[in-house]
Write a structure and sequence with these properties.
The structure holds two protein chains of two kinds. Chain A has one domain: P-loop containing nucleotide triphosphate hydrolases (Rossmann fold). Chain A is built from eight helices and twelve strands. The radius of gyration of chain A is 19 Å and the shape is globular. In chain A, helix 5 runs parallel beside helix 6. In chain A, the strands form three sheets. In chain A, strands 6-9-10-3-11-12 form a six-stranded mixed beta sheet, with helices on both faces. Chain A is of the alpha/beta class. The two termini of chain A are 25 Å apart. Helices cover 31% and strands 29% of the residues of chain A. The longest helix of chain A has 16 residues. Chain B is mostly helical. Chain B has a domain of 238 residues. Chain B has 14 helices and two strands. A two-stranded antiparallel ribbon of chain B has the order 1-2. In chain B, helix 5 packs across helix 11. Chain B is globular, with a radius of gyration of 23 Å. The chains are: A alpha/beta, B mainly alpha. Chains A and B meet through helix 2, strand 8 and helix 6 of A and helix 1, helix 9 and helix 10 of B.
């Protein structure tokens, strides 16, 4: 039984067919790279898995069970976390506050409940050190470097111990030095048994951390290959259409 | 300076490395601050310093300034604005604005007057006042949150409509008889406990409540998150629309409460109650550190901002400066406060 199984996923926005009959299987602990040119449908597919919107047609199964996501929170409850391209962080809050946003731990005394700041700071600190990031829980996100912000977004996905972490272009907006940092974070996720789907434009990133790569072109999946059985040249050809399919 | 022995790529790498090292250094060298240290960095703290400075100068310039009578008047006068600014700060924290609070005062005050004049006691009067406020806040909030209309436009419309309804239901007449509980009503708004005016007590209690809410409640945390990045808040599973509606309701309830106290203090109410107060309340909130871009709020900012404005008015009066200058100085402080905030932000980055 596969962890996540996408079956003939189709998504139309009016007359535009963003995705047409895409199949994808993700196993436990799997790292799958999702590649394609702008407008190929990568982000749309990610957003469907993350519950931002439902597919027009097609079925999502998680551990064999058919699911329907209407809100991001549905996907989260099913064990799927996503790191958005823009990271979706609140700059005005601390790292710890961002990690726990929407699921803050509380203390209670009778009917009164209040935020457990100590628990948030402690747990966020643990998560950052697990990720080997120097991010400090009390620092405001506004004051952080790109790599640290990425660490906050990734730490957030580990709160619930998800089965699958989706990452949308995690290395697109950061400097060369921080790319290595983020790739290390992804490897650590993999090492701890999480499945990862990585959307990226950057060929070296995908070849460094992924086991398999799926290529989308104009809304259809044109190839799915094991990393060891393909080359950047072949993938580039598949993305641009120089190679029809493989 | 360029080093001829290095390739452009090496130069670029070195620059990139250095700048990142600098960022990392500045990030890691930023010590975690104690409560006091972080207080020094907030706008309310510096406005408070300004208040002390003005107070010091005034106590030397004028014999009247430090008298109990004068301090009593100052604190009572700013209490109403402070109470409203607490609610306004919440709205501003979501990057919204509520222009209808002044008109709402008029409407809520008139409704209170009508209910009590009709012979109902103070409890029905109070409930009617707060229900009116809640209803206005609810309409504002629903239009802003669910229909995604601009807060400025929605509340500008509500400013006109509330005032108009107040005129219609009051038949444009003053109300000065408040039925069986008139005495109690006027005592609540106009008298004092331990020589502190009642509205000031209300302001102090509410300030502590809001401080707790901003620091310890999920609601407060979520309001700040919405102001910081509403999209991110939504993705994190926060019910952004519902929270936004509640913020406008809270702001209106604060205005309703201020109206209730103010009518009791005046002992009468006309439908002109609270006219143009929205501007003073917004100014007090901003001077107290609320950022119109959203995401920043201080519970203590609201009373401090309101206090500064009243202090300016009082000081000009005592210093014998024409009262016509008052609005000039309020405006000046408002602009200075925002300027200061920007300078500190640039320094902090």
């Amino acid at each position: 039984m596969s962890l996540v199984e996408l079956n003939a996923i189709t998504k139309s926005f009016g007359a535009i067919h963003a995705l047409q009959g895409v199949d994808l299987v993700i196993e436990e602990g799997d790292a799958v790279g999702l590649m394609g040119d702008n407008g190929a449908g990568k982000s749309t597919l990610m957003k469907i898995i993350a519950g931002n919107f439902p597919p027009t047609k097609g079925v999502i199964r998680i551990e064999g069970r058919e699911v329907e996501f209407h809100k991001p929170i549905d996907a989260r409850n099913a064990g799927i976390e996503i790191v958005y391209q823009d990271l979706a962080l609140c700059d005005n809050l601390t790292a710890a506050a961002n990690v726990f946003l929407g699921r803050e731990p509380k203390k209670r005394f009778g009917p009164i409940r209040w935020l457990d700041h100590d628990a948030m700071i402690r747990r966020a600190g643990e998560l950052f050190s697990e990720l080997k990031s120097e991010t400090r829980p009390r620092d405001l996100v506004r004051q952080m470097s790109g790599g640290q912000r990425q660490a906050v977004a990734i730490a957030r996905t580990r709160l619930s111990d998800p089965k699958l972490v989706l990452m949308d272009e995690p290395t697109a907006a950061i400097s060369v030095r921080q790319v290595a940092e983020v790739l290390a974070l992804i490897k650590r996720l993999k090492d701890t048994g999480h499945a990862v789907v990585l959307v990226s434009h950057r060929m070296p990133d995908v070849f460094e951390v992924c086991d398999r790569v799926a290529v989308l072109r104009r809304g259809t999946k044109v190839a799915e290959k094991r990393i060891g059985e393909t080359s950047p040249e072949e993938i580039t050809g598949l993305i641009t259409g120089a190679i029809e399919s493989a | 300076m360029t080093d001829p022995t290095r390739t452009p790529q090496e130069v670029h790498d070195a620059t990139a490395q250095r700048s990142h090292a600098e960022i990392d250094d500045s990030v890691t060298s930023r010590q975690e601050m104690s409560g006091w240290q972080s207080a020094f960095r907030t706008q309310p703290f510096w406005v408070f310093v300004a208040i002390l400075a003005i107070g010091l100068v005034m106590s030397m310039v004028s014999d009247v300034f430090l008298t109990e009578r004068n301090l009593f008047n100052i604190t009572r006068n700013f209490a109403f604005f402070g109470i409203m600014a607490l609610g306004m700060s919440a709205v501003i924290c979501t990057a919204g604005i509520d222009l209808s609070v002044g008109s709402l005062m008029g409407l809520a005050g008139i409704i209170t007057g009508l209910v009590m004049q009709a012979g109902y006691g103070i409890v029905p009067g109070f409930l009617a006042c707060m229900a009116t406020a809640a209803a206005v806040g609810l309409v504002n909030g629903v239009l802003v949150a669910y229909l995604r209309m601009a807060p400025f436009v929605v509340t500008l419309g509500m400013l006109a409509m509330s005032r108009s309804i107040a005129m219609v239901v009051s038949n444009n007449k003053m109300i000065y008889e408040f039925g069986p509980d008139q005495d109690l009503f006027e005592r609540i708004g106009g008298e004092s406990v331990f020589r502190v005016p009642n509205p000031v007590w209300v302001l102090m209690i509410l300030t502590v409540v809001f401080w707790w809410v901003w620091r310890y409640s999920t609601w407060g945390r979520w309001v700040m998150a919405i102001g910081g990045n509403a999209h991110a808040a939504k993705l994190a599973g926060i019910p952004v629309e519902r929270i936004t509606v509640s913020v406008y309701v809270v702001c209106s309830l604060c205005a309703g409460l201020a109206a209730f106290l103010m009518v009791g203090w005046f002992g009468s109410v006309t439908n002109a109650l609270g006219q143009t107060y929205e501007l003073n309340v917004i100014a007090a909130s901003v001077i107290g550190g609320a950022n119109l871009m959203g995401g920043v709020v201080y519970a203590f900012g609201a009373p401090i901002g309101a206090a500064l404005m009243e202090l300016i008015r009082n000081s000009l009066l005592l210093a014998g400066i024409d009262a016509l200058w008052q609005q000039f100085f309020v405006g000046l402080f408002l602009i200075l406060a925002v300027l200061l905030e920007q300078i500190r932000n640039r320094g902090g980055r």
